[in-house]
Design a protein that fits this description.
single chain, 203 residues, alpha+beta, Glutaredoxin, five-stranded mixed beta sheet, 9 helices, 5 strands, Thioredoxin, Thioredoxin-like_sf
Length: 203
C-alpha cells in the first residue's frame, strides 16, 4: 500500500496493549460485570464470556502450518501489526489467537491492540465496505510507519457469507447466522486465514 495513516502515531503505538494486556483487561472488566465499549448489556456480557472461552481454546489448539512459518520468517524489517478490536467481537476472538502464534515466529513483528470505540479516527481510515467492522489488522513498517497491508474483519468466504446475509437473510435470524459463522470457524481451523496471510506476507 505504501501509504501513511494520519491517525496512527508512534504515541498511539506506545500506548497500545499487547495480547496479555488485552486479555487481562477483558478479565478485569468481566469481574466488574462490564465489557469493552459503552454497552454493558447482558447480551454483550454473554458475547464477551463466550469470546474468552474461544480465545482460550484457540490458545491451546491453533496451529501454524510450515508454509506460513516460512513466509513470516522472511520478514527482515521491523513491523507493527496494529489490531482494532473489542472484547465482545466474535470474529476477533476466532482469529487473533492464530495471528499471535503466527507473528511469534518472527521477532521483527510486534502485535499491538487498540479498542475500536476509543479510536474511531483510526477505524474510519480502514473501513470495510463503509462499515467499522472488526477485527481490523493494519501492518505498519516500524521505521517509516507506512501501511504495508491490512486484513480483516474475517476470512473472505465469511465476508461473502455476511454480505449475502445482509442483502437477503432468507428467513434466518441474526442469532442463527452467528451460529453458522462460528461453526465455520470450528471446521476451518484457520486454514483459510492462514492462506490469506501467506498471500499477504509474500506479496
Amino acid at each position: 500500500m505504501t501509504v501513511i495513516s494520519s491517525s496512527i502515531t508512534r504515541e498511539l503505538i506506545d500506548e497500545s496493549m499487547d495480547f496479555a494486556q488485552y486479555r487481562a483487561l477483558i478479565d478485569q472488566l468481566l469481574l466488574q460485570n462490564k465489557t469493552t465499549g459503552s454497552n454493558h448489556s447482558e447480551a454483550m456480557m454473554d458475547y464477551t464470556r463466550m469470546n474468552v472461552q474461544r480465545m482460550k481454546r484457540w490458545d491451546k489448539t491453533a496451529k501454524v502450518g510450515k508454509g506460513a512459518v516460512e513466509a513470516v520468517k522472511k520478514i527482515a524489517r521491523g513491523q507493527v501489526w496494529l489490531v482494532l478490536t473489542e472484547a465482545w467481537c466474535g470474529d476477533a476472538a476466532q482469529n487473533i489467537s492464530y495471528i499471535e502464534k503466527l507473528a511469534a515466529f518472527n521477532e521483527n513483528i510486534k502485535i499491538r491492540y487498540i479498542l475500536r470505540d476509543e479510536n474511531l479516527a483510526v477505524m474510519d481510515e480502514f473501513l470495510t465496505n463503509g462499515g467499522r467492522s472488526i477485527p481490523k489488522l493494519v501492518a505498519l513498517d516500524e521505521a517509516t510507519m507506512d501501511v504495508l497491508f491490512t486484513w480483516g474483519p474475517r476470512p473472505q468466504p465469511l465476508q461473502e457469507m455476511m454480505a449475502a446475509f445482509k442483502e437477503d437473510p432468507k428467513g434466518v435470524s441474526a442469532e442463527e447466522f452467528k451460529k453458522t459463522i462460528h461453526l465455520w470457524y470450528a471446521k476451518d481451523k484457520h486454514q483459510t486465514l492462514e492462506a490469506e496471510f501467506k498471500t499477504l506476507l509474500t506479496q
